[in-house]
Amino acid sequence: MTAEPAFLLHRRPYRETSALVDLLTLNHGRIRAVAQGGQRPGSKSRQRLQPFTPLFVTWRGERELKRLMLMESRGHTALLAGEGLLCGLYANEIATRLLPLEFAAPEVFAFYSALLEALPAPAERALALRRYEWALLETLGATPRFCTQDGGALDPQIRYRFDAESRSFIPAEQGIEGRTLRYIDQGDWQPVGLASALKAVMRAALAPHLGSTALRSRELMLDLARRRQR
User: Fold this and answer.
1) N or C, which end of the chain is more exposed by having fewer CB within 10 Å?
2) Mean pLDDT of 37-58
3) In sequence order, which ranges of 99-194 are alpha helices (DSSP H)?
4) Which residue numbers delimit the DNA replication/recombination mediator RecO N-terminal domain (predicted)?
């Protein structure tokens, strides 16, 4: 097969010296494969299979579990630290959880690539992360419908909360103003005042698909926030 652009999403030990990896690929979405020698100290595959490193990969196998044949770097690893690193880990974690195996998701790959470029810059990372989350929701056919449950327009003066079952919005005293939701629906997410509302909408829309198990990356983010407050 032709070498495929990819990123490592997750790696864990497999048997004695191999690694079981989840990769985000350009044309095949998420694949799971065995990387022989991926846990052996000093091996080339272990050195190359690092998070946030652009790769070229090939694999063999017709079943869900593939065997990696080629792993080559195609660029520099994104140098992430602090909050930027935790956002990157979050991006990897939700893709691993949400994307079905071998389900083509080229837009997710594109927004993931753009996210890695934005994460080192604090002013850019939140918006890039929201666009990446939206791409995941779109791939799953789970993007919010910015209307009421019966399909009506949102009232700018009323507050709403997201309803996961209908993927629409219902009135709620502690919700988000309809005016703000309509701005979000227009796709212009640049205004600073939209940031918290946009994050809340994405979190509510993603929650039903992530399941009940807490995200490890989110726990680490909360721990970082607590330490900063001390």
Assistant:
1) C
2) 83
3) 106-118, 122-139, 178-185
4) 3-69
